[in-house]
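Module 6 notes. Inverse folding takes a fixed backbone as the condition and produces residue identities as the prediction. Think of it as a translation problem where the source language is geometry and the target language is the twenty amino acids. Below is one complete input and output pair. Work through it position by position during the lab.
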């Protein structure tokens, strides 16, 4: 089997900023598998927060000597971006070899469109209000926050989009003191959920603080092994395939989390439709879908996902699965 991993760079439509920094382009790793007859592909987004770069992920993949199967991936690659791209490429290859859609292979119903959040980049209150006004027609906005000045930012976003549902993402940027100051403001403004307010590993304060709106674990939740430490701290988990290490673990994490009573959000890094495509399967019926990566691109891959008033649609076979 021919196995290749390449780095692709896509310009973003505008600067995208969170509490840890800003970017103007998305750098992704694309894996292709060819068995001589058909080609499967998958995409991952290496994330510096977890010590990953495109080069380190490609090196990890180049050290894999056998294309193996889904069950054996965990023995050769840890959960993370490299395993995600390879796992999703294997599923795409399997679907194409079988001549069936991926959901048929997984014995699941055909996926339906899901309303997705659209992310507002961290900026000054004035610029965030302008962003919100530009996208006020969207049903759900996710507002990036990050610490000092967040009250002014979220109030500005609500002015810009007075009738839109809003969730917020602090990207580990708050302290317990700031949370206590912000929580009543968020509830007054109708914010529905806050994502990862405190740093992973320093979030025990959530067991003592009153959670007046649902709190979602992102950086604190990677795969099923993360669930035990979330008890009493979080109401929801954010499943991202680049954290779980692929579709296989993402589906297992979703089932395990729901069994424990957690609500589920399905999110993404900033990547193309190829990276979002497998996540549309995981997003079926969840509380929050946040698969807006392609909407942030200046130009997406060919055969990209369709986004309309119904939400993000499942991929065509020409893209993935």
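Target side of the pair, the amino acids:
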């Amino acid at each position: 089997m021919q196995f290749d991993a390449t780095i692709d760079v896509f310009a973003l439509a505008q600067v995208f900023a969170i509490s840890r920094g800003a970017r103007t382009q998305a750098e992704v790793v694309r894996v292709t598998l060819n068995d001589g007859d058909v080609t499967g592909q998958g995409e991952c987004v290496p994330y510096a927060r977890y010590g990953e770069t495109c080069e380190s992920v490609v090196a990890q993949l180049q050290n894999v000597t056998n294309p193996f199967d889904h069950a054996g991936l965990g023995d050769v690659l840890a959960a993370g971006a490299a395993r995600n791209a390879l796992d999703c490429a294997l599923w795409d290859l399997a679907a194409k070899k079988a001549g069936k859609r991926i959901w048929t292979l997984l014995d699941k119903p055909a996926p339906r469109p899901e309303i997705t959040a659209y992310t507002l980049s961290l900026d000054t209150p004035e610029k965030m209000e302008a962003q919100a006004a530009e996208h006020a027609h969207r049903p759900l906005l996710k507002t990036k926050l990050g610490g000092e000045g967040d009250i002014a930012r979220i109030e500005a976003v609500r002015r810009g989009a007075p009738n839109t549902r809003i969730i917020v993402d602090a990207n580990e940027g708050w302290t317990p003191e700031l949370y206590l100051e912000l929580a009543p403001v968020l509830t007054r403004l109708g914010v529905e959920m806050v994502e990862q307010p405190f740093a992973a590993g320093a979030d025990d304060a959530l067991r003592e603080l009153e959670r007046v709106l649902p709190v979602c674990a992102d950086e604190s939740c990677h795969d099923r092994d993360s669930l035990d430490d979330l008890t009493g701290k979080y109401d929801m988990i954010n499943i991202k395939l680049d954290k779980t290490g692929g579709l296989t673990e993402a589906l297992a994490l979703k089932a395990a989390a729901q069994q424990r009573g957690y609500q589920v959000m399905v999110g993404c890094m900033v990547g193309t439709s190829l990276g979002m495509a497998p996540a549309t399967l995981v997003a079926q019926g969840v509380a929050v879908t946040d698969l807006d990566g392609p909407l942030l691109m200046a130009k997406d891959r060919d055969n990209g996902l369709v986004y309309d008033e119904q939400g993000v649609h499942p991929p065509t076979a020409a893209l993935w699965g």
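Reference fact for the lab report: The mean pLDDT is 95.
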